[in-house]
Design goal:
Elements (H helix, E strand, L loop, with lengths): L8 H5 L7 E8 L5 H10 L9 E5 L4 E5 L7 E2 L10 H4 L4 E6 L2 E7 L5 H20 L18 H4 L2 H5 L25 E8 H10 L4 H20 L9 E8 H5 L8 E4 L2 E2 L8 H15 L2 H15 L2 H4 L3 H15 L6 E8 L10 E8 L7 E8 L2 E8 L5 H12 L5 E4 L3
Parallel strand pairs: 4-5, 8-11, 11-13
Antiparallel strand pairs: 1-6, 1-12, 2-3, 5-6, 7-14, 7-15, 8-9, 8-10, 13-14
Helix pairs in contact: 2-4, 7-8, 8-10, 8-14
C-alpha cells in the first residue's frame, strides 16, 4: 500500500530520538482482560487493513505492507508515546496496550491522523466490550461493523482526490521557537481536566469556538513568555499556533487514512499588544479565511503536484529523503510555535456509555516543538493534554492558570511531580 500524501514526510524526517506518533485511549469502568483485548485486536484485522501494517523501504518510496498476524497486546509501561524505533516500525506501525482499566492505541502518523485513530479505538473498544458482555455493540457514532469488508473510500488517499491542481502561494514568516532544557529519555505529560460546559461558556463569552478560545489563550501565554525574555519589541518574532484542520468535514471524505492539513494563525507582537478578545477575533477570522474548501484545495495541490511529476517519482529514495528534510525545515514546523489539535466531542453508542469513563487523545512533541497540546471531550469533561520533552513546565502553568482566571475550573494530573 502506498503512503498517502501527508504520510510521505514522516518516515523521511524521523530521527533517532523522534518519530511522529500519537495516542488515543479509552478508560473503562473495570480492569481490562488482556486475553479478550487480544481477541478483539485479532477480530478487527480484516476490517482495518490500513492499520495492521509495517513500514517498508523501496527504491523510490516508502510503502506499507500488511501484517500476516495481528500485533500482540502488551501492558502499558514507562510513559505515553515512548519512541517508536525504526526496528519496531519495520514490524508494526501501531501499538495496542492496556493498563488496569485503560485501553490505549499508539499510531505512527504515516498510518492515519487522530480522527482515523479514534475510529479504530472506538471499534476496538466496542468489540472488546461485546466479547466481555456477550452482546453486540451497534455500529454507530463512529463505531464500524467489524464483520464488514473495508470500504474503498476508507482506504483512499483523499489528498489526491481533492487536489484542484492549482497551487496556493502560502509563504509566511517563521514563528518564535520555544526552548528549554531538553530531556531525551522522558516525555512530561500534564492533563487539565475541565468541565466541558464551563469551557463552552468561557469560549462563548469571547464569541468564539472552544478551539479558537484555547488557541488564543495559548497564544496569549506565549506572547507574555516572549515579552518577558525579549524586552525589545522590535526583536520579537511572530507567535502562531498550528491548528490541524480535519478535511473530511470540508469534502465529505470517509477515509481512515491521513486527511488533515494545518493552518498557522497568529499575530506579530512588533505591531503592539493584544487583548484576549482581540486574539480570539483574529484567530477566528484567519481560520475562517484560510480554512475554506477552495483555499485548502490549493494547499493540497502544493503537496500533491510534486509527487506526480515523473522525474521526481524516478528519483531514488535517499535523495528524496534529503530534499524532503530540507523542505520540512523551511516550510514545516518553522511556521508555528505549538500545535493545538482538538478532536472535539467524542461520541459513543449508547450501549457503551455505562462502561467507558474517559476518552483521550495525546500527540507527541513535534520534531522541533518541545511542547504540544491535544484536546478531546467526553462525558461532560474535556481533557487537555499538554506534553513536553523539556524540563520547564512554564507554558502549561501559564495556560492552565489563565483558564482558571477566565472561570474554567481545572483539575491537574501529571506523570511527574
Amino acid at each position: 500500500m502506498r503512503l498517502d500524501n501527508a504520510a510521505l514526510i514522516f518516515p523521511a524526517i524521523r530521527q533517532r530520538r523522534w518519530a511522529n506518533a500519537f495516542r488515543v485511549s479509552a478508560t473503562l469502568t473495570e480492569p481490562v482482560d488482556p486475553a479478550l483485548l487480544q481477541q478483539a485486536v485479532t477480530d478487527l484485522m480484516p476490517r482495518f487493513p490500513s492499520m495492521y501494517v509495517r513500514l517498508r523501504t523501496g527504491m523510490f518510496w516508502y510503502y506499507l505492507e500488511e501484517l500476516e498476524a495481528p500485533p500482540t497486546v502488551r501492558e502499558d509501561y514507562a510513559y505515553p508515546l515512548t519512541l517508536m524505533q525504526e526496528k519496531e516500525l519495520r514490524s508494526c506501525c501501531l501499538r495496542v496496550m492496556y493498563f488496569q482499566d485503560r485501553i490505549a492505541v499508539e499510531f505512527f502518523h504515516s498510518l492515519t491522523d487522530g480522527n482515523g485513530g479514534m475510529v479504530y479505538l472506538k471499534t476496538l473498544t466496542a468489540r472488546y466490550l461485546s466479547l466481555r458482555l456477550g452482546r453486540e455493540i451497534p455500529p454507530e457514532e463512529g463505531v464500524l461493523d467489524w464483520r464488514e469488508a473495508p470500504r474503498p473510500e476508507e482506504l483512499e488517499d483523499s489528498f489526491v482526490r481533492h487536489s484542484n491542481g492549482v497551487v496556493l502561494n502560502d509563504r509566511e514568516p517563521d514563528a518564535l521557537r520555544l526552548r528549554g532544557s531538553y530531556e531525551p529519555d522522558f516525555l512530561h505529560l500534564t492533563t487539565g481536566v475541565v468541565p466541558t460546559q464551563a469551557l463552552l461558556e468561557a469560549a462563548h463569552r469571547q464569541d468564539s469556538t472552544v478551539t479558537v478560545f484555547l488557541a488564543a489563550v495559548l497564544e496569549e501565554a506565549i506572547l507574555q513568555y516572549q515579552a518577558e525574555r525579549c524586552p525589545n519589541r522590535r526583536k520579537r518574532k511572530p507567535v502562531k499556533v498550528t491548528i490541524p484542520i480535519n478535511l473530511r468535514r470540508l469534502y465529505g471524505s470517509r477515509t481512515l487514512r491521513n486527511f488533515v492539513l494545518t493552518l498557522n494563525p497568529g499575530v506579530d507582537p512588533r505591531m503592539g499588544d493584544y487583548s484576549l478578545p482581540q486574539l480570539c477575533r483574529r484567530m477566528a477570522a484567519q481560520l475562517a479565511a484560510e480554512g475554506t474548501p477552495q483555499q485548502m484545495a490549493g494547499r493540497i495541490a502544493a503537496n500533491v503536484n510534486p509527487q506526480q511529476i515523473p522525474l521526481i517519482r524516478a528519483v531514488p529514495l535517499p535523495i528524496k529523503n534529503f530534499v524532503m528534510r530540507i523542505i520540512y525545515a523551511q516550510r514545516g514546523e518553522s511556521k508555528g510555535c505549538i500545535n493545538l489539535s482538538n478532536l472535539g466531542s467524542v461520541r459513543l453508542p449508547e450501549a457503551m456509555g455505562p462502561w467507558v469513563r474517559r476518552m483521550e487523545f495525546i500527540i507527541g512533541p513535534q520534531r522541533s516543538y518541545p511542547n504540544n497540546c491535544s484536546v478531546a471531550s467526553y462525558g461532560g469533561e474535556t481533557y487537555i493534554n499538554m506534553i513536553r520533552n523539556i524540563r520547564e513546565s512554564e507554558l502549561e502553568r501559564r495556560f492552565f492558570s489563565r483558564l482558571v482566571e477566565l472561570g474554567v475550573p481545572v483539575s491537574i494530573e501529571s506523570n511527574t511531580r
